[in-house]
Amino acid sequence: MTTTREIHLAARPVGWPTANDFALVQRDLPPLAAGQVLVRNQYMSVDPYMRGRMNDAKSYTPAFPLGEPLVGGAVGEVVESTVDGLAAGDLVLHGLGWREHAIVDGGGVTKLDSVTGVSPSRYLGALGMPGLTAHVGLLDIAAFQPGDTVFVSGAAGAVGALVGQIARLRGAKRVIGSAGSAGKVAYLTDRLGFDAAFNYRDGDVHGQLAAAAPDGIDVYFDNVGGDHLEAAIGRLNVGGRVALCGAISMYNASEPQPGPNNLALAVGKRLSLRGFIVSDHFDRLPEVVAEVGGWLRDGELVADETVVDGLDNAVDAFLGMLRGTNTGKMIVRL
Amino acid sequence: MTTTREIHLAARPVGWPTANDFALVQRDLPPLAAGQVLVRNQYMSVDPYMRGRMNDAKSYTPAFPLGEPLVGGAVGEVVESTVDGLAAGDLVLHGLGWREHAIVDGGGVTKLDSVTGVSPSRYLGALGMPGLTAHVGLLDIAAFQPGDTVFVSGAAGAVGALVGQIARLRGAKRVIGSAGSAGKVAYLTDRLGFDAAFNYRDGDVHGQLAAAAPDGIDVYFDNVGGDHLEAAIGRLNVGGRVALCGAISMYNASEPQPGPNNLALAVGKRLSLRGFIVSDHFDRLPEVVAEVGGWLRDGELVADETVVDGLDNAVDAFLGMLRGTNTGKMIVRL
């Protein structure tokens, strides 16, 4: 019998979570049933949406149960299989992260056809959920067209960095990002090829956006809400489009946050604001792997990772990601 | 030389307008130039959007100039014409209301093919801009589908009354309206065939909407903004759609109004909110005249009017419309 370790949700965080809300638990692995695979996880993902699922609020994705292991994207190697078409040594993507070993039903596993020269961790980032979120949000939800000026908040994060680069590679007129430090701002312009960027912690988001977008913006990809959304509404051109992708600030808010005080501008400017959830769009993932994988291989797109080692450090990685200590995708290597 | 009378914007209203912001002016009509028609106006429209155009704020429709006649929809009879295809006696629709006679360029005039048995004033209401606004907002902007539950605010107004009835006639599961008096609420359910209605002046818009829509709503047609929009966002089902049509409360606001404090729900519920301006959609008017005209003739759709007589009373009609003294379309007969 193999023992393994996993991280449980010990308490529902109120506001910003702390280490006390989690527990590292050791347990024995049960024997494999028919139709299951045992996976040794190599990489697991920590993502902003996980914070939302720690709340008990009525939502359209179920809350994580207390006292049970958390879930999330993971990539690993099959150790044992009772599923046809999956054998020991196969590299797979599945939804049971936050643990060193996972026993997964065959239907919950995607066998990865590696993109040559790309780390398996990419399937948790540029070639996985963050890549799909950026692609669908920009192209479908915000209906991006070549020639658009695009603004993305949280632009140094896993999703934001891809939104800006996909926009650039698909012919945006101008790509603008906001982030939370001078270092990240330099990273956006110097390494990711953004045309302009600003540090929202310097204040006056409206003024900084106006300076960065003298001719207005056509698309706003919202990872932040709050004053960013209000500034974007003020700056959007006629026919402008907003993809509402969720916001760390909202997940951690204990009270309702005031909405944008200029939403009435949406009438005269014919704006559209659309919320979306990436899990509605998993059928589009192969398209993203093909397009973004090609750009990655050719060096046209940068997908940096902040890698933290060991399940013991997974909670710190998650908390750090919420605070913005990562640049690009935050990954835990197990 | 014929003298005529017209109403000028004398001052820019601050907040709610008063009679002092307008002036009734008598003047001589100049001789007709080539390519013009002289029209004796029979009916003119007073509409909420006109309040917006009295502000000097930067907008996407130009502000009404001070010291000049107001403009707006009007129907009248051609008295004299130098335009091919338009002759004395023709009934025409044009954009120079707020005056007893109008001299209009030929290109600004639409000759009306009357729908038999329907008053010409209909072309300012159900068969005109309000009808087009209701049709486009419900069907295109909010992407109404048979089986949807629809909520419309300002439901006893010219646009709202049509939104609810078009939804009913096109197969809504349930139609809910809000209005500003007990009499209007009874009017919505008893005369217009709404399934439920409530008086927002009784307070607790969230609670009243929840009671009227136990299974949630799929479409919200927003004529009001503020707490109605917030309540609608709270009550919208997954995939819900909002048509943002402008709001009297917004036009008269001197300060920015707080936005809905629950806009973050748009992410998980995959909501879309879209603003629109009817003038982008004038090409759809013949379709509206055909469909709504048919329903009107067959008695399936009610389009009541509140008719005020005489240009001397046009300002009062406009101010009354802003306060909600009308039921259905407010019309001035000249």
UniProtKB/TrEMBL annotation, chains A, B:
<dbReference type="Pfam" id="PF00107">
    <property type="entry name" value="ADH_zinc_N"/>
</dbReference>
<dbReference type="InterPro" id="IPR011032">
    <property type="entry name" value="GroES-like_sf"/>
</dbReference>
<dbReference type="InterPro" id="IPR020843">
    <property type="entry name" value="ER"/>
</dbReference>
<feature type="domain" description="Enoyl reductase (ER)">
    <location>
        <begin position="18"/>
        <end position="332"/>
    </location>
</feature>
<protein>
    <recommendedName>
        <fullName>Enoyl reductase (ER) domain-containing protein</fullName>
    </recommendedName>
</protein>
<dbReference type="GO" id="GO:0016628">
    <property type="term" value="F:oxidoreductase activity, acting on the CH-CH group of donors, NAD or NADP as acceptor"/>
</dbReference>
<dbReference type="InterPro" id="IPR045010">
    <property type="entry name" value="MDR_fam"/>
</dbReference>
<dbReference type="InterPro" id="IPR013149">
    <property type="entry name" value="ADH-like_C"/>
</dbReference>
<dbReference type="InterPro" id="IPR036291">
    <property type="entry name" value="NAD(P)-bd_dom_sf"/>
</dbReference>
<keyword id="KW-0560">Oxidoreductase</keyword>
<dbReference type="InterPro" id="IPR041694">
    <property type="entry name" value="ADH_N_2"/>
</dbReference>
<dbReference type="Pfam" id="PF16884">
    <property type="entry name" value="ADH_N_2"/>
</dbReference>
